[in-house]
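Following up on my earlier thread - several people asked me to post the actual chain instead of describing it. Fair enough. Here it is, all 349 residues.
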Amino acid sequence: MTGDKGQVTGKVGLESQVSSDPRPTTCDLRPPLVSVIMPTHNGERTIEAAMQSVLAQEFRDLELIVVDDSSSDGTAAIVQRIQANDPRVLYIYQHPRLGGPGPSRNRALREARGKYVAFLDGDDVWLLGKLEQQVSWLEAHPETVLCFTQMYRDADSEERMVCPSSDTRYNYLAEFRGNLIPVLTVVMRRDCLEAVGGFSEDLGMSEDYDLWLRLGQRYAFHFLSEPTAIYTVHETSMSRNAVRMRRAWLKALRRVPINRRLGVTPWQKRRRLAQVRYDLARALYERGACAEGAWECVKTVTMDPGVGGSVWNERESKIWRRFQPYRLLAQCLVGMVFGREKADVKWRS
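Reply from S.P.:
Thanks for posting it. Predicted structure:
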């Protein structure tokens, strides 16, 4: 299974479908209304639950496109077994590896036929009723290009966290100040996604945040305050990716043009970049990269000397928060002097 574009395993015949639902399902005679895009890599432990959460939706006019980015475990066998029982599944085995969900989503987008596209990674799940609710909204509001919702985060804890908060009021400036849109809750119009060129493939991660920043400059979004998905938290991977994520955010934010109509003034852009750079400096310090952390602190306060006042910390007053970047700089310098510095290139990629 080789080739730059991967190997596509097509939909099997309708006669092999196992379903007691009398409503018609999509077939090759007409395109589905929704294309669900699911990237995965070595996801044998979670891919079945993710796929079944899509195929069990009461809204059945869909296709599920699974892009397997060179998995070396049993992912392929699981997907193909499910595909054999449901003609709505399209399986793409990608080799050589694309690397990251952004390129995999673009690969699936080239095969998608739906008027709308939705996204779900191979280790997350949807709740019942998701597509029916969001597609109905988009059909009734043609001026809206993208609809997103709340999600449950950390479902294994006693109290499942819901985010974004129910009082979220989406506007472009709010999205610019911090990513509000969970990609696994999004349903959007495919032609608009294609019009902006799909997902960027040069960021390494956070391609979704970059996409919302580009889309929001041209189109209207809508938020529904009801959880429709469950995001699986991997604490280890989250901590390891902190530095890479902030670097990707900086790259995406620098691309955003000044647009006073949307609220992105030169001051707003400088403040936001300084906030992310401070978070990057803190992540570097926590990883033991004190020299890099110190340098990022210097760039932070040079860009916006008062950025500390906008750093969220419920335990400290706003006046004291103003000194946080300078305190972090001192901590980084002390770490350099007293040997806390670690040469770990994994955190610096």
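Confidence is low (pLDDT under 50) at residues 1-5, 11-27, 343-349. That should answer part of your original question.
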